[in-house]
Amino acid sequence: MDWGMENRLNQLMPEGKCFFMPIDHGYFQGPTRCLEKPGETIKPLLPYVDALFCTRGVLRSAIAAKIDKPIVLRVSGCTSMAGKDLANEEITTSIDDIIRVNAAAVGVSVFIGSEYERQTLLNLTKMVNECEKYGIPVMAVTAVGRETEKMEARYLALACRISAELGAKVVKTYWCKDFEKIIEGCPVPVIIAGGPKCETEKEVFEFVHDGMKKGAVGINLGRNVWQAPQPVASAKALQAIIHNNASVKHALEIYNETCK
C-alpha cells in the first residue's frame, strides 16, 4: 500500500478502529432535526470521534478550518426524499475539489439490486480510479434507500463483497442478524452504519458491541448520537466500546455517569 493511502487510513482508524460521525443527511433529506446547524451540533462531540463524514457544502459553510479531525467527504448524491428513487445518484464532487478541501477519504453510495445498480457501481469505480492516483481511500456505503427490508445478511454480504471487489478500501453497512456472515465474506474493513433511530441507548450499545465482537472495525453513527437525549454521554460510551472494548454494561455506566 502506498504511504499516502496508509497514512490517511491510520488517521481515520487509529489502532485499526474508528468512530466516524456522519452529518451528511441533508444531502437528500434537507434540514434534519438536531442538524439544522451542524457546526454547533458537532462541537461537544468532536473529542469522542475519529472523523466526520460530510458534504463539501457543509464542510465549507459550517465546519471551522482549524478542526483537527480528518474528513470523509460525501461525493455521491443528486436525489432527495421528494424524488422518485433515492438510488438514482451521480458523482457530485471532482477529484480536484476532494484534494482542495484536504479530504482524508471519500464516501460513495451503492444501491445493489436497484434499477440504478450499475450506475452507482460505476460511480464507485470511477471514484476509486481517480482517488487511487492520489492515495485517497474510498468508502463504499451500502445504501438501501427506502427499502429497509434489504437490511439482512444475505443482501448486505453481497453488497459489501461487490464493493470490495471494485476497489473500496472500507465498506459501511448495516448491522443485522448473522452479521458475522458479512464480515466473513468481505476482504476489507467493515464499518457499522447507524440505521433507524433506536428507542434507547442500550439498544444502540448492544448492536454496536455485537458488531464489533463479530469483526467490524468501527461505526459511522449520526442520528443515534446527535439526536440522543444526551449526545455527549452517548458519544463517550460508544467511544469506549470502539476503542476500549467496553461491555454494554460498562458503556451504560459511562453513559449514566456522564449524564450526572
Automatic annotation (TrEMBL):
It comes from the Bacteria. Signal peptide: none annotated. One of its GO terms (molecular function) is fructose-bisphosphate aldolase activity. Transmembrane segments: none annotated. Pfam families: DeoC. This is Autoinducer 2 aldolase.
